[in-house]
Amino acid sequence: MKLKVLVDNNTYIDQYYKGEPAVSYYIEDGDQCILFDTGYSDVLITNARAMDIDLGKLTHIVFSHGHNDHTRGYKFLMQRYVLPDVKILAHPDCFKPKRDGAEDIGAPFSEGEMKKSGSLILSEKPIRLNENLVFLGEIPSLNDFEKRAEIGEQNSNGVWEPDQVLDDSALVYQSANGLFVITGCSHSGICNIIEYSKQVCKEKRIQGILGGFHIFDRDVRLEKTIRCFQENQVENLYPCHCVSFQAKAKMNDALNVTEVGTGLELSL
C-alpha cells in the first residue's frame, strides 16, 4: 500500500503544496485507487495535480464522517471528474444535515445527491475494500475514558437532535507487520478505534496510526491515550489535523511520532 497526504493543516518546508484545516489521503493498493476524505475546498485538486496523481482513476472514495472539513471538497472533485463507477463508502449518518448553532457543519450534499454521483454504500458494519483494507463502519465504545462528545446537532427524519457523530469511522490496512489505522477525526475515540480494528481484523499488532485524534488538552484522557498506544506497542504514530501541538509534544515524549504535512508519503 502507498499513501500520500493530499490535504492537511500543516505543510513542509521546501514542499510547495497547499494546506487547509481539513483531511484528504490518497491510497493505492494493488489496482485500487482510494481517496480517504476530500478536504474542504479544491485544495485536493491542486495538490493532486502537483503530485502527479490522477484522481480520474479513483475506484473508491471513503468518508470518515460527515463534517465539512472532510466532505466539502467532494463537490470540487465532481466538477472536474466524471466517476460513474466509483464506490463511495460511508456510515448511514454521514450525509445527514449537521449544524453547530447557526453554522452548517455537514456535507454540502444529501444522500440522494450522492447516489447520483457513484455507487453509494452506507454501512454500520465493517466492509472489505479488498483483502487488505477494511472500512470499520460504526465504532463501539470499548473503554471508560473516551466518552462520545456531542458536537452540534444532526437532523434525522426532520428532527434536530444532539449529534454524537456516530458516523465517525476509520480505514484499516492489514500488513504483514500488523494493522495500520487511518482516521479522520476519531470522534469515536482513537483507542476505541484501535480495539475495534483488532477485533474486526483478528490481529493484535498495531504497526502504525495516521490521522486526527481530536485531542487538544494535556489531561487525563491524553495520559490514558498514550498508555493505550504504549500497551499496544504502536510502532509509528502520525498525529495530525485535530491534535494540538501540546498533545503531539506529550506523545512525542513517549512514542515514535512523525510530523505530518501535505505531501507526506508512506509505503507499507
Structure commentary:
Residues 21-213 form the Metallo-beta-lactamase domain. It comes from Robinsoniella peoriensis. This is Metallo-beta-lactamase superfamily protein. The protein has 268 residues and is an alpha/beta fold. It has one domain (2-267): Metallo-beta-lactamase, Chain A. Helix content is 22%, strand content 26%. It contains 7 helices and 17 strands. It has helices at 43-50, 68-71, 74-80, 111-117, 190-201, 220-231, 245-254; strands at 2-7, 24-29, 32-36, 60-62, 87-90, 98-100, 103-104, 119-122, 127-128, 133-135, 153-156, 159-162, 170-175, 178-183, 206-211, 236-239, 265-267.
**Can you give the helix content as a percent range?**
10-25%
Number of domains: 1
| Strand runs, count | 17
Summed up, the helix count is: 7
Mean pLDDT: 97
Main β-sheet description: 7 strands, mixed
Which fold name corresponds to the CATH topology?
Metallo-beta-lactamase, Chain A
Amino- and carboxy-terminal Cα gap:
5 Å
Question: In the CATH classification, which architecture applies?
Answer: 4-Layer Sandwich
- The Cα radius of gyration reads 17 Å
CATH class: Alpha Beta
Quaternary status of these chains? Answer: single chain
Strand content: 25-35%
Low-confidence stretches: none
CATH superfamily: Ribonuclease Z/Hydroxyacylglutathione hydrolase-like
SSE ordering: EEEHEHHEEEHEEEEEEEHEHEHE
Class computed from helices, strands and strand pairing: alpha/beta
Write the layout of secondary structure elements.
Elements: E1 2-7, E2 24-29, E3 32-36, H1 43-50, E4 60-62, H2 68-71, H3 74-80, E5 87-90, E6 98-100, E7 103-104, H4 111-117, E8 119-122, E9 127-128, E10 133-135, E11 153-156, E12 159-162, E13 170-175, E14 178-183, H5 190-201, E15 206-211, H6 220-231, E16 236-239, H7 245-254, E17 265-267
Parallel strand pairs: 3-4, 4-5, 5-8, 14-15, 15-16
Antiparallel strand pairs: 1-2, 1-17, 2-3, 6-7, 6-11, 9-10, 10-13, 11-12, 13-14
Domain Metallo-beta-lactamase: 21-213
GO molecular function, one term: transferase activity
Organism: Robinsoniella peoriensis
